[in-house]
Structures are given as C-alpha cells and as structure tokens.
Design goal:
With 748 residues, this protein is α/β, with parallel strands linked by helices. 43% of the residues lie in helices and 16% in strands. It has 30 helices and 24 strands. Strands 1, 3, 6, 7, 10 and 11 form a six-stranded mixed β-sheet that branches. It has a six-stranded parallel β-sheet with strand order 21-20-19-22-23-24, sandwiched between helices. The longest helix is centred in the middle third of the chain and has 26 residues. The relative contact order is 0.10.
C-alpha cells in the first residue's frame, strides 16, 4: 500500500499509564492474574514483567486502570515545563477489545449494618467497571496473556432516583462524577498526595479485579461462568496476588470483606487465606512517598473496610503485645493506625501484615527495608522478607530498540540470549576481538548519528555526533540529583572559559525527564538546565566542545531512541535513596558505560561487571548515615572547594538567568541550607570521576572493551530472571517451555 511501517509506528501514541520506573515496571497495572494448571495469580505488575511472564509461559491476566489521560505531555516554553493533557485515545486504540459482558459493579460510601445474620454494606453509590482487554504475546512461543484495564461507567439509573423532580438533564450530566474515576493518572513519582479521587481509583481497580479473580476461581471449566467451587480452602493454591507498591493494598481488606461478609468464611480462616494469597513489593524508602490515608476520608468512602482494617490491626497488636509485653513504643511504631492531629492508615504496614512475602527490588534496597523501613516487622517475622532485583525485557530494550547491536551479538553467539540473557557471558572471551570491537563501536556511532538527525529534525538542535553522549534521563527529583550534573556542566564550562586552548573531550550533555506538576523544586531544576544550556550553547569560545540539551517529553518511545545512542549513563542518586532503578540496566545492555553511586541496582551491576568497569564514586550508604549523625554542613564544602563555590555563585547571582537574577536563589538556598540529598558532599568525587571518564573516552579501543564487558555481564538484569524468582520463591509455580501443539496436529 506504499506505507512505511517505521513511519506508521512513529504515529502511534505511547500508552503512558504509569509514573517513572514503577510505570514501566507496572504500566497501568494495579493487579495481575496468571492462569496455570497449578495456579493462577494476581499482582501489580509491569510492562517488562508481562512480557517476561508470557515469554516464560506463565499465562497471566494483568489488571489496571484504563486512564483516559495518561502521564501529561511535557512542553518546554521559555525554559519552563508546561503540562498538556495526554489524549492518547484520540485516534482510538486498535490493540484493545472492550468486554461489556464482563462489566462489574463497584460500591462506595453508604453505611454498615451488623445483624445476627452477618454484616451488610448498604445504601452505597455504584460505579460500573468496564473491562478492556489487550493481548500480551510471549516471544516466539504460543502464549498470549491478557492485560485487562478497567474503565469507569455510570449505571443508567445514576442519580435518577434522587427525588430530583425534573432534574433529568442534571442527573445525566452528573454521570461524569462517576466516570471521572478513570479519567486521569496522578502524575506523582515517589510522592504521596492524599486526594479522595486517588483513593477511589485504588479501590476501583482492586474491587473490580477481585470480583473477576473470584469469578474465575469459582468456574472450574474454561469458558464456564456458572459458579462451581464453593470452598475457598484451595484459593491460595490457585491465586497469588502481588501488591506492586502499596497502591493496590486495599486488596487485603477487600478480600477479607468478600470472604467474611459475602462468602461467610470465619475470620481466622479468611485471614489465613488472605495472607497466603497476598505478597507485597516495596518500591521506595522515601518517607514522603509512603501512602498514609486519613481515617476520616477512608471512613466516608469505605466504611466497612475501615472496620476490617481496625480488626486486622487489633489482632496484630494483640500478637505483638504478647511477644513484647510492656513495649508500648513498639506497638505505636507497628500499628496500622497512626495517632496524631489527623489519624491515618499506614498502607505499607497493612501490606506487610497481610502478606506472606515482602520484597525489595535490589539487594541493597531489600537490606534497607529490613534494617530501617520495616525493622520491627523484620524482627517479628524475618522469614517473610526477600529480595527480587528488578530486570528489564531484552526483547524491547535490545532487540526492538537496538537491532544493530542485537545483530552484532547474534553473529557471534547466536540468538539464544534473547530468551536467556545470561548467555551474553559468552562475549567475555571476545572482549579483545578486533572485529567485535570495531562492530560494537560502529553500531554505537550509527545510533548516535541517527539520534543526532532526530534531534535536528524534531527540535532543530544541532549536535556533534562524534562528541561523548552523556545522558541523564529519569523523573526529575531532588534525590536523583540532576543538580549534581548541572554543577559538573557549569564546572566544565568554567574550565573551557579559563583555558580555551586546552584539549577538551567534546561532550553533549542530555538531561530529560518530567517533573510532577506540583513539585516546585523539580520545575526549577528543569529551568536551571535550560538556562545553563542557553548560556553554554551560545558561547562562541565553547564551540561544539560542550552542549547542554534538555530532552523534552521523555517517555518510552524517546527512551528507545536515546538509550542506544548513549555513551555515558548517569545514575547518581544519593546512596540509599534509589530502590533499584531500571534505566541503569537499559543503558548497560545497550553499550553505555555507567557513572554512578553505590545505590540501587548499580551495586549489583558493579558486582557483575567488576567495579573497575563502571565509574563508581561518592558516599556509600554507611558514609551517608555517618554524615547524618555528624550533621551535614553544605557550607564546609562550599567554603573549601573553589570550583564548586564559583559554580554556585554563578547560579545564585543570575549569570545563567540575566533577565531574572534572583531566579535560582531558592535552589541555591536549598543546596546550602536544607539539602536532604547532600549534593555538595559528592561534588568533588563526582567531578574527579568525570575526569576519569574523559581520560578513557580519549582511548576509543579501551572504552569499547569496557562496553563489551558491560554488555556481557548484563544478563542478570533480564526481567525473565526476576519473574522466574518471583514464580519460584513467592507464587509457587514453575515457568514452562511447553508449547501447545498446532491445531493441524492430531491431539492425543
């Protein structure tokens, strides 16, 4: 038809239904169910995980919300972030199939009535959950899983029975109030905003999904909708629910409500079933990210669930008190209910109590989870705590986004690595192979040329494709320390200006990522990056030795272009703050070298490839803790590091914002007086480490050898390995390579 497939692919909108890494690790998914002869499960899950589950032959049902508007589109206007609605469904979505025949009711508000016959939740408001199914095929096998996303619909009698004489039009218009539940994704990454609509969203996905799971559990025969099973004894053998962060935590009280109130299972049995079914993955240690819902809001929206949470907590505290008599401090710390001005429900505590397994997402993070975040819970039940280091799918993050590199690898070791990434180890014996070194370097150069052309075409930005592509892409957050990168850029700029005749390694520094719309400091960081770019990029003395580009609207489709082109990957969070990171793994697999702190999965990347093959710098977790005990004083560093002082003074004085000299006063004030993430403490080590990067980049052959070593050692970071560990250690199932025979073959 004369159409170019690549051109067609470019037109398709991203389904941006999640935030940051948990968004890809859980693109839209609150929960997920897997079909298996032995078992099915349900959990909060990811795009990478869904791909791996299908590829591993775990037949899964992924559940989440079909947001009408996903993560906002980011525009940069005069250097500032401006948000635009992401109308991703504007031209329709050919991959989804609406399933009105499986529509389910979800209840809110109302009141609770206790009677001898049991408990009734009455006079509720009803919203309907309409499922949309998207197929998720495994790689070169015949497993096709389903992602089921729920959309909110008002029932046809919505508001019409509210005695509103003649208010028919108003009643129909009020349908929007119900349908707003699935209207828009809350765009916060690592930050809790206790909004009622968000709590409604969390209950909506949980209530619809659990009804679906239980319907499927009760029908023994495929395609049969009549309930067959009546006993819930075997429920945990057939279903596993993985809570991907605390967002689907309401699955715990909701499952209890269904078992106790609806199915009339006695409390202790119901609690045993619930705990055996649920498991919880923690994704962050930042206190401001933990979900703590006000009891008053919870009571209004979910009165029966509040009673259940109180009952769970009472039994839990009785148990703790029996083991630690007189330790009231421990009871207070371990309670699900936080007392204070505003009583709150700590959803993380609810998850830990209601689950049979709790895991972090990188080894160092899982240790922090045990030693600080959930220390009391770990002392109570140490056997419950595990680690599951995150991974990424090599199908999307190598084969699809970097076909040139994939081909180069296939030529050397075959294509088995695409479903068993550990086979990349075979490349280790070829590290000094001249032809491989040449091919890997050439593929990188082609990717850089292609990305340079893209930047020029889309943004009118000209970059030097032979410069080092220094890339820092992730959500904008103080803990991710884009400001540390900015200070290095300003330092490089000052060095060039001071001695223009000196030979500098040319760099193109690319920084990209979205800031939550209400996060003022993150928006200031974006403005700082663009302002530094305005000065540096137009300074004739600098020429093309240093360029600073802010990558607008960073999203999966842009990541697929920039990651294969990167030379240097920046992973520079303060040690102990990034749970895992997954971008770090994508860069490693695509032939970039990492400059990073000993944080998250960087620690295991250094262990796999050898620390000498990464550029590791800065405080370790122990150093950060020691500095906290001593008291972090940013001024000490400012006073004794002249290059740091110069850079900070330039930012503060308006050198980069001449039209608004005070623009960055607030940023500098934060760095000097209340920087939780210790940017100045790592500045000296970072700048020195960057000099080592320059030094190695001057020797392309040695650089490329390190690249090959990194690629060869990235096998551990496949989501296939991660999902296999979840399956064996938490869900109690084995991945299977069994293929269904084609229909043409006679059946046994």
């Amino acid at each position: 038809m004369g159409l170019d497939l690549e051109e067609l692919e470019e037109i398709e909108e991203d389904a941006g239904l999640g935030n940051g890494g948990l968004g890809r690790l859980a693109e839209a998914l609150g929960l997920l169910t897997v079909f298996d002869p032995k078992k099915f499960f349900v959990f909060g899950l990811s795009a990478c995980f869904l791909d791996s589950m299908a590829t591993l032959g775990l037949a899964a049902y992924g559940y989440g919300i079909r947001y009408e508007f996903g993560i906002f589109n980011q525009k940069i206007v005069n250097g500032w972030q401006v948000e635009e609605a992401d109308d991703w469904l504007r031209y329709g979505n050919p991959w989804e199939k609406a399933r009105p025949e499986y529509m389910l009711p979800v209840h809110f508000c109302g009141r609770v009535e206790h009677s001898p016959e049991g408990v009734c939740w009455l006079d509720t408001q009803v919203v309907l959950a309409m499922p949309y199914d998207t197929p998720v095929p495994g790689y070169k096998n015949d497993t096709v899983n389903t992602m089921r996303l729920w959309s909110a619909k008002a029932p046809n009698d919505f508001k019409l029975h509210d005695f509103n004489v003649g208010g028919y039009i108003e009643a129909v218009l009020d349908r929007n109030l119900a349908e707003n539940i699935s209207r828009v994704l809350y765009p916060n990454d690592n930050f809790f905003e206790g909004k009622e609509l968000r709590l409604k969203q969390e209950y909506f996905v949980v209530a619809a999904t659990l009804q679906d799971i239980i319907r499927r559990f009760k029908s023994s025969k495929f395609g049969c909708r009549d309930p067959v099973r009546t006993s819930f004894e075997t429920f945990p053998d057939k279903v596993a629910i993985q809570l991907n962060d605390t967002h689907p935590a309401l699955a715990i009280p909701e499952l209890m409500r269904i078992l106790v109130d609806v199915e009339k299972v006695d409390w202790d049995k119901a609690w045993e079933i619930t705990r055996k079914t649920c498991a919880y993955t923690n994704h962050t240690v930042l206190p401001e990210a933990l979900e703590r819902w006000p009891v008053s809001m919870f009571e209004k929206l979910l009165p029966r669930h509040l009673e259940i949470v109180y009952a769970i907590n009472q039994r839990h505290l009785d148990h703790v008190a029996a083991l630690f008599p007189g330790d009231v401090g421990r009871l207070r710390r371990m309670s699900v209910i936080e007392e204070g001005d505003c009583k709150r429900i700590n959803m993380a505590h609810l998850c830990v109590i209601g689950s049979h397994a709790v895991n972090g997402v990188a080894r160092i993070h899982s240790e922090i989870v045990k030693q600080s975040v959930f220390k009391d819970f770990y002392e109570l039940e140490p056997e419950k705590f595990q680690n599951k280091t995150n991974g990424i799918t090599p199908r999307r993050w190598l084969l699809l986004c970097n076909p040139g590199l994939a081909d180069t690898i296939v030529e050397r070791i075959g294509e088995g690595f695409l479903t068993d990434l550990s086979q990349l180890k075979k490349l280790l014996q070829l590290v000094s192979d001249e032809a491989l070194i040449r091919d890997v370097a050439q593929v990188k150069q082609e990717n850089k040329a292609k990305f340079s052309a893209f930047l020029e075409k889309e943004y009118g930005v000209k970059v030097n494709p032979s410069s080092m592509f220094d890339v820092h892409v992730k959500r904008i957050h103080e803990y991710k320390r884009q400001l540390l990168n900015c200070l290095h850029v300003v330092t490089l700029y000052n060095r060039i200006k001071k001695d223009p005749a000196q030979a500098f390694v040319p760099r193109t520094v690319m920084i990209g990522g979205k800031a939550a719309p209400g996060y003022h400091m993150a928006k200031m960081i974006i403005k700082l990056v663009t302002s530094i770019g305005d000065v540096v990029n137009h300074d004739p003395v600098v020429g093309d030795r240093l360029k600073v580009i802010f990558l607008e609207n960073y999203r999966v489709s842009l990541a697929e272009k920039v990651i294969p082109a990167a030379d240097l990957s920046q992973q520079i969070s303060t040690a102990g703050t990034e749970a895992s990171g997954t971008g770090n793994m994508k860069f490693m697999l695509n032939g970039a070298l990492t400059i990073g702190t000993m944080d998250g999965a960087n620690v295991e990347m250094a262990e796999e490839a050898g620390a000498e093959n990464l550029f590791i710098f800065g405080l370790r977790v122990e150093d950060v803790e020691a500095l906290d005990r001593r008291g972090y004083n940013a001024r000490e560093y400012y006073d004794c590091l002249p290059e740091l002082r110069q850079a900070v003074d330039q930012i503060s004085s308006g050198f980069f914002s001449p039209r608004e000299p005070d623009c960055f006063r607030g940023v500098v004030d934060m760095l000097l007086n209340h920087d939780r993430f210790k940017v100045f403490a790592d500045y000296e080590a970072y700048v020195e480490c960057q000099a080592r990067v320059d030094q190695l980049y001057r020797n392309p052959k040695e650089w490329t050898k390190k690249v090959i070593r990194n690629i060869a050692c990235s096998g551990k970071f496949s989501s296939d390995r991660t999902v296999t560990e979840y399956a064996r250690d938490i869900w109690g199932v084995e991945p299977s390579a069994l293929q269904t025979p084609p229909p043409s073959l006679p059946r046994d």
